[in-house]
Design goal:
The chain is α+β, with helices and mostly antiparallel strands. The chain has a single domain, classed as Porin (Beta Barrel), CATH 2.40.160. It is built from 2 helices and 15 strands. The strands form 2 sheets. Strands 1-2-3-4-5-10-11-15 form an 8-stranded antiparallel beta barrel. A hairpin with a 2-residue loop joins β3 and β4. It starts with a helix and ends with a strand.
Length: 235
């Protein structure tokens, strides 16, 4: 809650600068774009011929499949981000440096069922049960990048934009739950409710810990690459 309040405070501060700034003769711009964060909309508000603040919304949703230890997992991915950025045009041209914060509501879920044999911590289970997991990301992610967009002193209505940068989302955390009934194929024991069975839950937790260790060892997951290109209309 405090992080969201700080995020809102930054927005209000930037808006106050915009309202009381008398140095900018450039016009606001609206852009549409596509990139690694999905499809998006940008609102650019110039503060001077060197600096502009930019707010954007991005969204994309799709589903992947992943196989681990012979088990096929469905992986629904929903990517929603809301950015508050500052663009610095050091040469008053099309090139800009960008820094800001991104409200990261990206979601990656993992689903599998017991209609096929599922291996948890080297123990095989099968039956009528379902596993549900999720990767949890840092909600407030700093962003740094470079880009190209119409000059803030430019008076033409249309222009192209491009951005390349990194969103520092941190190491995602893994959580998982299970429901239904299962059979331990090694012992033949039938579990009526996996959610309350201590042995099954212990195997599930150990599997989650192994996945978390794999993620922790990969520095790539901490940094999300951002690349986009689009079209801008200046009022």
């Amino acid at each position: 809650m405090r992080k969201k309040q700080k995020f809102i405070s930054v927005y209000l501060f930037l808006l106050a600068i915009i309202i009381f700034s008398s140095n900018s003769h450039a016009q606001p711009g609206v852009g549409i774009k596509v990139g690694t964060l999905g499809a998006g909309v940008d609102l650019t508000l110039p503060l001077s011929s060197y600096v502009a603040t930019r707010f954007n919304l991005n969204y994309i949703s799709f589903e992947l499949e992943s196989t681990r230890e012979g088990v096929t997992y469905n992986v629904p991915v929903s990517m929603k981000t809301f950015g508050a950025l500052v663009d610095l045009h050091p040469f008053r041209g099309v090139f800009h440096l960008t820094a800001g914060m991104v409200l990261n509501q990206n979601s990656v879920k993992i689903n599998a069922n017991g209609k096929e044999t599922v291996t948890l911590d080297d123990t095989d289970y099968e039956g009528d049960f379902e596993l549900e997991g999720e990767l949890l990301f840092r909600k407030m992610a700093p962003y740094l990048g470079i880009g190209w967009s119409p000059s803030l002193k430019r008076k033409s209505k249309w222009g192209f934009s491009a951005d390349i940068g990194v969103m520092f989302q941190g190491t995602p955390r893994v959580k998982a739950t299970a429901s239904g009934s299962a059979t331990n194929t090694s012992t033949g024991e039938t579990i009526d409710n996996v959610f309350t069975d201590s042995v099954f839950l212990n195997d599930l937790n150990n599997e989650v810990m192994q996945i978390q260790e794999d993620i922790d060892d990969s520095s790539f997951s901490r940094f999300y690459p951002v690349a986009s290109f689009g079209l801008i209309f200046q009022f």
